[in-house]
Every structure is written in structure tokens, then in C-alpha cells.
Amino acid sequence: MDMKVEIRWVKETDSTQDELRRRISGCDNMSVIAAEFQTAGRGQRGNSWHALKGENLTFSMLLRFGEGGFPPLNARGQFVVTKAATLGVVHYLNKKNIGCSIKWPNDIYVRDKKICGMLIESVLDGENLAYSIVGIGVNVNQRDFPAQIVNPVSMTLLTGEEYNLEDEMEILASSLADSFTTVLSGKPDAADEEYERLLYRKGSFYEYTRCPEGETFEGRIIGTTEDGLLLVEDKKGELNKFAFKEISYII
Ligand code: BTN
């Protein structure tokens, strides 16, 4: 598959998440709003997202469910959106000869460095998702990052190449659209095996912090549950389940 999706570029906006929400009535399923610069880019855990003007990809893709979109998706199954989105980015980076893994739930890592972050915001209609806005930031041409950004890396730092952002946006949007179409159009299990296989740090012991307690422990990631919790085995052989804000990786 090589799907074409509509991409609208804006020079500057607060956040493409908010820009898309403001324009939502004019946006079809899987259309994209991309910004050359965000003045208030948002990250996970209430953090801001840093990207130098015109150097990286910062965009949001709309996923509609129900009429005019994908088949209805119960909110309890929404982790498939995360899986499809992360795999769409991984497939794109692989096309660029960049091998990567998925740091649960939705960061993309190259070895121990972050190349891409994601913020998925969904709105419900009863028990089902009405729509999701998948916000993605990929470090593309940026070479220098502020000291407070933890473990950043960019495509250019890895390959030495300089990328045309409009071209890359098209390839990445198409890869995401392929992934969403496969997974959300009736094959919810299609992403399971690959997502689990690509999990960063799966299968070996590393240090983690339990949040908010702050207690450090050694654990081994085993996989994820259907509803998106992280399964970590500790040194006593006990299996622990973590929600997003309950564990932090020591890298
Ligand atoms: C994270 O890793 O903390 C998530 C980062 C998500 C950043 C993207 S950039 C495009 C979209 N607009 C935003 O304001 N945030 C997301």
C-alpha cells in the first residue's frame, strides 16, 4: 500500500493538536496539519515539546471513527491506536535505514536516544472513540538540542543527510495511513506481535523507578497487556503492571 493523505502546512501555530481541533469540521479521516513552527508544542506528562523552527516534523493526524472513518472502536481497546501509530513511524524510519525500537508506550528510540515523541488525544462518544488526534514530533534536521532535553537524537545526526521536510512528511503520513488502515479497519491484532517485538529493553533486566514513590528497582519488561499496561517482572520473579505515570525508566 502507498496511501496518499491530505497534508496542510501552516507556518506557525500554538500546537498542531489545537490547530487541528479548531479546524476539525473541515478535516477528513487521516488528514494532517503540519507546522513549520509551534509556539506552544505540547508533550506528554504536561511537558512542552521543543523543536527548532523549520528543522523537524511537528504534525497532527486526525483519526475518525464511525461515519466517514474507521469502524467503531470501543475506548477500552484504544491501545491499538498507539500500536498502529508507533509502527507507522518505525516503518517510515526503517525506510530511511534507521533501525529503532518503541519505548512504551509511544516514544521511538534509536538505541538509548529519543528520535520521536507522540501525544494521542481522544474524544469519546459514549463508550466508543469519536476521534483521536495523533500528534507526532520527529527530530529530523536538528543537530543541537537544549541541555534540558533528555537523550535526543535526530535523523541527520544518525545518517549525516539533510532532509526535505515536505517530502519526508508525505512519506511518513503515507506510512502512518497504511498502518492505521491495516490495524483499525478490522484487524486489531495485526500490530500485536510487531509492537511487542520492538519494545525497547524487552527481555533483560534494567533499573526503573516506581512513581510517585521514587523507589528504584531492577526489572525485566515482559510485554504489554491488552489495555496498554506495561508488564515488568522483578528480581523476585513477581509480575508488576504499570500504567503510564507509574514507572520511569532510568536510562
Ligand atoms: C512527548 O514525547 O512528550 C510527546 C511529544 C509530542 C509532540 C508533538 S509535535 C506535534 C504535536 N503538537 C503538539 O503540541 N504536540 C505534538
Ordered list of secondary-structure elements with their pairings:
Blueprint: E1 7-13, H1 16-22, E2 32-38, E3 57-64, H2 79-95, E4 101-103, E5 107-110, E6 113-125, E7 128-138, H3 155-159, H4 165-184, H5 192-197, E8 205-210, E9 216-224, E10 230-234, E11 239-242, E12 247-249
Parallel strand pairs: 1-2
Antiparallel strand pairs: 2-3, 3-7, 4-5, 5-6, 6-7, 8-9, 8-12, 9-10, 10-11
Helix pairs in contact: 2-4
The structure holds biotin.
Molecular structure report:
The structure is a single chain. The protein is α+β, with helices and mostly antiparallel strands. It is built from 5 helices and 12 strands. A 7-stranded mixed sheet has the order 1-2-3-7-6-5-4, with helices on both faces. α2 crosses α4. It starts with 6 loop residues before the first strand and ends with a strand. Bound molecules: biotin. Biotin binds next to α1, β3, β6 and β7.
Task: Pick out its properties.
251 residues; alpha+beta; seven-stranded mixed beta sheet; globular; binds biotin
Q: What's the total number of strands?
A: 12
Through-space gap between termini: 37 Å
Strand content: 25-35%
The main sheet orders its strands as 1-2-3-7-6-5-4
